[in-house]
Every structure is written in structure tokens, then in C-alpha cells.
């Protein structure tokens, strides 16, 4: 059942359109991630839902009620900010109880709600602790508890893990999902990090240049992107453009082609962008007998401990393909200058239709955002 409904939401700052005609619906209890590069409009969208920015046009409804014109203080929405925004002079108890106190709840209600939140976030005994005495992860959990304590209709999170180191950030993803599942609150989570968006969201909204590129479950968005930007931004891949020759083959020009799996909505003659995901391409010194096979030359390798990334020039496609492989302690490595063969199964080839805005290759700069 639709709980939050965003319809044609638009925000302009003078001549700049920050968000343009964004529409999507969220079911009650869902955890939805909103992802995109810096400046794509994701935080502006969040701020309009929270009531901190007034939309130029469009509507926002929660449980059927139009809240577009309601001031922020009249919306039962909890917000977790990027810097947590905890009150440094207040204890953990006072921070978590703040929303309840502002709503006129009595001390007994505040105590019961805070105790429940401390148990949920696994910080019992921290009531009299001050924020500066807490670690980054503990501060983050206190900020989440404050947003949940007054039983809001909706919780909005604006890149709450961006200030944590990589290892802590990974553990906090699981923690946030656990807390959200335990409370059942509908949650919108903004991030620039593709891994967070894919791993945490029940559904994922991909934004670029203020426009919604795709809204769907993470697996479908990753495997069946609806725009070249989506395919390029989510994950690491190499792109080559072509024309759909048959429903199961793309002509890449100069006598080259790639076999693909058929998808609804495509017809021969369509211009398509083909993406070879790094982790789905295999590499060997002997020519494989099945699948799409391309010959290349290793130009460099990037060793990352448990994984090595090979960069391979493929003359027939006139591109450099990156291949990511997991390595063990005893594996030997390919070396620069070696002739190799790469293989990818037709079912693993990602492709999407090219529109006028994506006729030239999407810049990989955004896709280099930290994974």
C-alpha cells in the first residue's frame, strides 16, 4: 500500500532547476535509498519532503494527506542529518527525548520512549553520557534514536554514514537496517555511495541532473538499467555503443558483435549502450570456447589484497576493459604486456537504449565515487 507519494516535485532556485518533475511512491515500512552524484538534487528532494524547502511545484502526500504546504514543525517526520546535529550540551537522554519534549510529552512518556530507543540501538547505560564522549558510530545511533523516539510517520536520513571510516560504515549499514526493520518505520535514505544504495534499499531511486532516472528494486536497477547513466553510475563497467542487430545480438561495428539476452521493449535497429561489468568478465591466457570472447593485452594491474583489477586494451572494440578477480594467497598474477582472452556470458551483458542526452559516453567521474 502506497504510504508516501511524490508527484512531479520540482524546485527552482532562480534560473537553476535543482529538481525537475520527480515522482515516485513508497510503501509503508519500506526502506528506500536515493542515490546520485553531488548536485543531482537528492538532498533538495529530501529537504522538500521534510518541509525545509518549499517546492516550486508538485505535491507530497503521506498516507493520503497532502503535506506539501505544511511547515516542518507540523510534519511528523524524523530527520537524521549528515553531521548528526546532536546538542553538545545535552546528554544522550536529553538528545533522544528532545522531540518528545517539544511535543509536550510528560516525563514518564519520555523516559519510557528513551529507554526503548536505547535498547534498540544497544546503548543502555549511556543516558548521562554527552555526545563528545561517544564514538562516531555511537553518535550516529543516538541521532537515529532521536529521529525515531517520537514515533514519526516517516524518517529521512541525509548521508548519515559519510563521516564514518569505511569499516565502521559497513557495520553501520547492517545496524541501520536492523533498527529500521525492528521499528517498521518508513525510511528515505539519501547517499552518494552506490554500495550503500544497492545493499540497503528495498527500492532505489537514481537521480541525475535533478531528474529521476529509474525507481525500482536494486537487482533490477543494476541488471536492467533504463538509461546509460544508471548503468554507468552503479558499479564499475566498460562501455561500447552499438545497434541491436537481432533481439539477442548487438552489432558493434567493424565486424564485431556481442551476444545478449533478450529483453522486452527493444527492437532491432535500436541504438544501445553495452556495459561489461568488471566482476562479470573473466580473463585467461587460453581462448575460451563459449560466450562472448575478446582478445586483449594487459596494460596494468591494480592489486588490492583479496582482489586484483586488470586493465586490458581490446583493439577490436577500441576500448580498455577493466576486469576484477578475487585472488588467493597462492594465485599468480598476469603481467603487463601479456596477451589474454576475456569472456562474458550473454546473460551477463548489460545494455540500455541510448537517448539524445546519452549519445556520447557518460563520464565515468561520478562512477569513481567511493564504493
From TrEMBL:
<dbReference type="GO" id="GO:0016887">
    <property type="term" value="F:ATP hydrolysis activity"/>
</dbReference>
<dbReference type="Pfam" id="PF00005">
    <property type="entry name" value="ABC_tran"/>
</dbReference>
<feature type="domain" description="ABC transporter">
    <location>
        <begin position="4"/>
        <end position="234"/>
    </location>
</feature>
<keyword id="KW-0813">Transport</keyword>
<comment type="subunit">
    <text>The complex is composed of two ATP-binding proteins (WtpC), two transmembrane proteins (WtpB) and a solute-binding protein (WtpA).</text>
</comment>
<comment type="similarity">
    <text>Belongs to the ABC transporter superfamily. Sulfate/tungstate importer (TC 3.A.1.6) family.</text>
</comment>
<dbReference type="InterPro" id="IPR008995">
    <property type="entry name" value="Mo/tungstate-bd_C_term_dom"/>
</dbReference>
<dbReference type="InterPro" id="IPR027417">
    <property type="entry name" value="P-loop_NTPase"/>
</dbReference>
<dbReference type="InterPro" id="IPR017871">
    <property type="entry name" value="ABC_transporter-like_CS"/>
</dbReference>
<keyword id="KW-0067">ATP-binding</keyword>
<dbReference type="InterPro" id="IPR003439">
    <property type="entry name" value="ABC_transporter-like_ATP-bd"/>
</dbReference>
<dbReference type="GO" id="GO:0005524">
    <property type="term" value="F:ATP binding"/>
</dbReference>
<dbReference type="GO" id="GO:1901238">
    <property type="term" value="F:ABC-type tungstate transporter activity"/>
</dbReference>
<keyword id="KW-0547">Nucleotide-binding</keyword>
<protein>
    <recommendedName>
        <fullName>Molybdate/tungstate import ATP-binding protein WtpC</fullName>
        <ecNumber>7.3.2.6</ecNumber>
    </recommendedName>
</protein>
<dbReference type="InterPro" id="IPR003593">
    <property type="entry name" value="AAA+_ATPase"/>
</dbReference>
<dbReference type="GO" id="GO:0043190">
    <property type="term" value="C:ATP-binding cassette (ABC) transporter complex"/>
</dbReference>
<dbReference type="InterPro" id="IPR013611">
    <property type="entry name" value="Transp-assoc_OB_typ2"/>
</dbReference>
<comment type="function">
    <text>Part of the ABC transporter complex WtpABC involved in molybdate/tungstate import. Responsible for energy coupling to the transport system.</text>
</comment>
<dbReference type="Pfam" id="PF08402">
    <property type="entry name" value="TOBE_2"/>
</dbReference>
<keyword id="KW-0500">Molybdenum</keyword>
<dbReference type="InterPro" id="IPR050093">
    <property type="entry name" value="ABC_SmlMolc_Importer"/>
</dbReference>
